[in-house]
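Fold this sequence, please.
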Amino acid sequence: MIIEHRGKCPRIHESVYVAPNATLSGDVSIGENSCVLFGAVISAEGSPISIGSHCIIMENVVIRASPRHPTTIHNNILVGPRAYLTGCTIEDNAFLATGSTIFNGARIGARAEVRVMVSSI
């Protein structure tokens, strides 16, 4: 679903795949050959959200921007299922694992991996 918010509509390159039940709202831009999979929500209600080229936004990811913190996702990024990103910058070739949470003002460097550790007792 593509939603206009405060006069801004998402700008999506023609090569991008957006799943039928994904939601994009407001000042969102997505570069070429990226994909937004099922159940993802990308909501630019406070500041812009920019997603580069060759990015994969997997199932049920939530990406938001706050009034003080835009969200910028550079190129060649994989965002794992159920990740939550708000007001952050993700630099080129990074990997965010399933369930990762990145908060306002955070910067994930180029080629970084963010993984969720689960310990067994």
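The CA atoms of residues 17 and 35 lie 5 Å apart. The longest strand covers residues 41-51.
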